[in-house]
Amino acid sequence: MAKLTKTSVEAVPIPASGASYLWDDRIAGFGTKVLPTGTRKYVLKYRNAGGRSGRQRWLSLGTHGAITVDQARKLAQQASAAVAQGEDPQASRAASEVSSPKLSDAWARFEADHLPLKKATTQSDYYSTWTDIIAPKLGSRLINELTTQEVDALHKSMRDRPYRANRMLSLLSRLLNLSERWGWNAVGVN
Question: Which residues pair with 47 in a beta bridge?
């Protein structure tokens, strides 16, 4: 065990099956989980009320690359402090996910409130962009968990259709901006 750094996280070999872990020596239960796909996730392993007799929980803090080691460490410290105060961060997250709207909910509201105000050709373009591109890939994602990397990957997957890719990005941006206005997402995260 040692202090997690970008170099040490990236040096963990990719396992053939199962998962590999590298634990931080400064924050108990904080580490990185390496999956056979090569994905590296920051995790916090803790026990809620009851100490050793309490239920062991795993809290996913984020994916390496999407967040830095230092950002994950701060999240782990905050979660550890919450556990010390008797809270259960995993249960809190699960409760917020239940109430958090999905991107498809934003589309439904946009379709009902905003789409009828557009010209017929724009309506048709927005509808086909949603049903053909955005909905299959991102429609079921929670708005507050949608990452820039996911959007960027979708945009890059459409390199052969640059006009359509940019129209998709424009519609997605509109949906996320409206989500902020409706209070479904934090302001300034689009």
Answer: 56
Q: State the Cα–Cα distance between residues 161 and 158, nearest whole angstrom.
A: 5
| CA separation, residue 39 to residues 13, 14, 15, 109 (Å) | 11, 9, 11, 34
Q: What is the pLDDT of residue 34?
A: 92
Q: Which residues pair with 44 in a beta bridge?
A: 30, 59
**Which amino acid is it at 45?**
K
- Nearest CA among 147, 148, 168, 149 for reference residue 158: 168
Q: Are 39 and 63 in contact (CB under 8 A)?
A: yes
Distance, in Å, from the CA atom of 188 to the CA atom of 13, rounded to the nearest integer, reads 37
For 82-115, the three-class secondary structure string (H helix, E strand, C coil) is HHHCCCCHHHHHHHHHHHCCEHHHHHHHHHHHCH
Q: C-alpha distances in angstroms, 171 versus 124, 149, 190? A: 12, 17, 12
The 10s digit of each residue's pLDDT in 60-69 is: 888 898 899 9
Contact 168, 134 (CB under 8 A): yes
